[in-house]
Write a structure and sequence with these properties.
Component of the ubiquinol-cytochrome c oxidoreductase, a multisubunit transmembrane complex that is part of the mitochondrial electron transport chain which drives oxidative phosphorylation. It is found in: Mitochondrion inner membrane. Pfam families: UCR_hinge (PF02320). InterPro entries: Cyt_b-c1_6, Ubol_cytC_Rdtase_hinge_dom, Ubol_cytC_Rdtase_hinge_dom_sf. The protein has 66 residues and is mainly α. 71% of the residues lie in helices and 0% in strands. It is elongated and about 50 Å long.
Amino acid sequence: MSDDPVDPRPEIEEACKPGCQKYWKEYEACAERVQAKGEGHCSGQYFDFYHCIDACAAPKVFKTVK
């Protein structure tokens, strides 16, 4: 149906990613270290990246809620 609502969140989150590149680069650097060592994880850096995206996107998403 053409009246189905469209979720704006994925598009908004994608638009926020460039502003969070610092965290993405930290995640990539961690991933390279982990791959070289063969142990460890980068979940902290990954969550930092998505926290940045969420902080950017949340106010924009809530503006679209009726």
